[in-house]
Specification:
The protein has 7 helices and 11 strands. The chain is of the alpha/beta class. Helix 1 crosses helix 3 and helix 4 packs across helix 5. The radius of gyration is 19 Å and the shape is globular.
Length: 247
């Protein structure tokens, strides 16, 4: 019996997901998975040992060694052969900032929980909207604000505008998770971010435009018009989600 692959815990999604060399190239891009990227970041950028990296990822040192070796080989091939490098997929889940499991004292998710955590009632549905000047902002990964609404019995009972404090788009899903958001309404959103929302249990309503308050009123009334296939019209830079075989 094949042992199920264990999800690796990552702090946040990479800010840039695609590197393309100048000139012409014929081969397909090399795919570096999110967990491979995180291993490179922790060991080569943050200076963690393989044992420390394993504690952060939630896996053993032997597993870290395999992930690290695979990642270094892929990066070397991309550089030496002049191939595009894309970061996507893999077996991972987003760190929830729980000090029992998170090794890093400066964990970004711990700070996000401190800054953005909000309680809500049992019967309340919390909806976030990408927001700018009263309107639904059209690019999830570039949004500087969310407007967050609490809905109970089909009525909006409260709302607030939340500044993401300049946090990179790789951590936006973490902000929504910290705020206990149940659903996100937005304009364009990359497929990686869609997967990230799904892996975090946040229902997604993309392809929406117009006045944010009116849009949420339509949502509360059950007749919001949205496009489930709407995506950003620029390169996707919003991370990915845990694949189905990851446990």
């Amino acid at each position: 019996m094949v042992r199920p692959v264990k999800c690796r815990r990552i702090c946040y999604f990479p800010e840039t997901l695609e590197f393309i060399p100048k000139g012409e190239f014929a081969n397909d891009p090399i795919i570096l998975t999110i967990d491979e990227y995180e291993t490179i970041r922790l060991i080569d950028k943050e200076g963690l040992s393989q044992e420390e990296c394993g504690l952060q990822l939630g896996v053993g040192r032997t597993t870290v060694q395999k992930i690290y070796d695979n990642a270094r080989k892929k990066i070397a091939d991309a550089l030496v052969l002049g191939l595009p490098l894309k970061i996507e997929g893999g077996q991972f889940h987003l760190c929830n900032g729980n000090p029992r499991y998170c090794y890093k004292n400066d964990c970004q998710m711990k700070q996000i929980l401190t800054d953005f955590e909000r309680d809500k009632g049992e019967d309340v549905m919390r909806v976030a909207v990408t927001y700018e000047d009263g309107m639904v902002f059209q690019h999830f990964g570039r949004t500087a604000f969310f407007k967050v609404y609490d809905i109970e019995n089909g009525e909006i009972i409260s709302s607030e505008v939340v500044d993401n404090n300049g946090i990179g788009h790789g951590a936006l899903v973490g902000i929504l998770t910290a705020m206990n958001v149940d659903a996100l309404i937005c304009g364009g959103i990359g497929p990686g971010a869609q997967n990230a929302m799904a892996s975090s249990g946040i229902e997604l309503f993309p392809g929406v435009s117009g006045n944010a308050d009116d849009v949420v009123k339509d949502f509360a009334a059950g007749h919001l018009a949205y496009d489930p296939d709407a995506q950003c019209d620029h390169h996707d830079h919003h991370g990915g989600g845990c694949e189905h075989h990851c446990h």
